[in-house]
TrEMBL record:
UniProt-recorded Gene Ontology molecular function terms: peptide transmembrane transporter activity
UniProt domain Major facilitator superfamily (MFS) profile: residue ranges: 1-204
PROSITE patterns given in the database record: MFS, PTR2_1, PTR2_2
Principal place of residence: membrane
Intracellular or extracellular location(s): Cell membrane; Membrane
Superkingdom to which the source organism belongs: Bacteria
Annotated protein name in UniProt: Amino acid transporter
Amino acid sequence: MTDTAPTGESTILGHPRGLMTLFFVEMWERFSYYGMRALLILFMTAAITKGGMAMDDATATAIYGLYTAGVYLTSLPGGWIADRLLGAQRTVWYGGLIIAAGHFTLAIPSHTTFFLGLVLIVLGTGLLKPNASSMVGDLYPEGGSRRDAGFSLYYMGINLGGFLGPIICGLLGQQLNWHYGFAAAGVGMVLGLIQYRLTRRSLGQAGAHALPVHDDAGRQQRFLKNAWKVLWLGVAAVVVVVGLGYAGIVTYAPVPLALWSGLFILLLGLGFLAWLFVYGKLSTVEKKRLAALTILFLVQVLFWAGYEQAGSNFNLFAERYTDLQVFGYAFPAAWFQSENSLLILLLAPFFAWFWVWLGRRKLDPSTPMKFALGMLFIGVGFLVMMGAAWIVVAGHKVLPTWLALTYLLHTVGELCLSPVGLSATTKLSPRRYASRLMGTWFLFMALGDLLAGLIAGRFSAHDVGEMPRIYLTIAAISIGVGVVLALFSRLIKRRLIGEEVRIASGGH
C-alpha cells in the first residue's frame, strides 16, 4: 500500500478529482435529507390553520419512524442494483433524480401528495446513499492512509450538508411556508445533480459498471435478464402498494404498520443470524465472533431508538416547550437539528486522535466498552431531558441550553458507538458473509429508527405530566444496558472477539 497518489493521476490537494464530485453530491443530498427531516414532524403535527396536517403525535412519530427506517432498508436493494445492474455511477444519478422529485412533490401544497413524496425520497436515498460511499473507496485502489483521509473529507461533506440543510430549510419552512422549505431541499438536490453531471467524468472507472456474477457470457446474460425482471417486479409492487392506499382500497394505519414492520425486521435479522450459526459452515472462532456481533447489533437497536428522538420528540419539545428567543430574535425550532452535524465536524477529528492516543498507551477501550459508553451518554442525555421536563411540568418554558446539552451528550455517544460498530462489523464478520452482515447492521439500525418513532409517540402534548417519567424510563434502560455491557465487556472481548477492533475516524 502507498500513501501517495499513483503516477499520472489528476488530483486536488493530493486526492483524486472524483472525490470532490462525490463530496458535493453527498453534501447536497444530506442538505436535502436533513433539511426536510427537520421540518417533517413539525409539519405533520402543525394545525391546519398553520398549514400543517394536524396529526396526533403518535401517528406523526410512527410515520417518521417508518420513513427513517425505510431509508436504511432501501439501501440494501440499492446496493444490489448498482452491483448487479447499473453500476454505482448511474445508480447515484437516478437516485438523485428520484430524491429531487420527492422533495418537489412535498413542495406541492396538497396533503394528497405528501406520502408519495416520502416514498420517492426513501427510494431515491436507497439508490444514492450506499453507492456514493462505495465509489469513494473505489477511487483509492492503493489503500493506505490517503484512503482514510479521503473518507474523512467525504464525511465532512456529509456533515456540512447536514448542518446547512436544517438552517436554510427550517428558516424558509417555519417562518414563511412549509412547502418553501421542502422546495429548498429539492433545489439543493438539483444543485448536487448538476455538479455531478458536469464533473462525473472525473470518477473514471470507479463505479462505472456493474460487477459480473458469472464468467460465462451465456450464464451472465441469463442472470441479467432474471435480475431485471426482479427489479421491475419490485417497482410494480411499490406502485401497487402506493396505488391501493391512494385509491382507498387499503388503509395503512401508521402505528400498527410500524409495530408489525419492526417485528418483521427483528425476526428477519435474528433469523439470518441463526441461519449463519447453524448452516453457515463457520469455524468455532467465526461463531464466537458472530455471537459478539449479535450482541452489538441488538445494543445498537436500543441506541438508535434513543438517539433518533432528535428528529421527532426533541423537535416537538423544541417547538412547544423551549424559549427560542435569543437577543430578541425567535429562531426556528428546526435549527436544533443542525447541532449534531456541527458537533461531529468539531469532535470527530478529536475522537480519531483520542482513540489512537489511548491505543499507543494500551488504554484504548475495547469495542464492547465503547458501545457501553455510547449507551451511557445516551442515558445521561435523557436524564438532562428529565430535568427539562420537570421545568415544563411546573408551567415554564426551558432555555435552549437544555436541548443543546442533550444533543452534545448524544453526539458523543454516537462517536463512541457508530463508527466503532461499522468497523467491528467489517472486521468480525466471516469474510464470505461480510456484505450481508453489513446489511444486517443497517437492518437493525432501521429497527432502532422504527422503535424510536413508537417511543416518541408515547409523549403527548395533552399529558405533559408524563414526560419526566418517560424520559427517566428511557434513561434507566440506556444506562442499565451500558452498565451491564461495561461489566461484561472484558469477557466479551476475551471469549468472543479475541482481538481488538480499532477505528480511526467516523461520520454518519
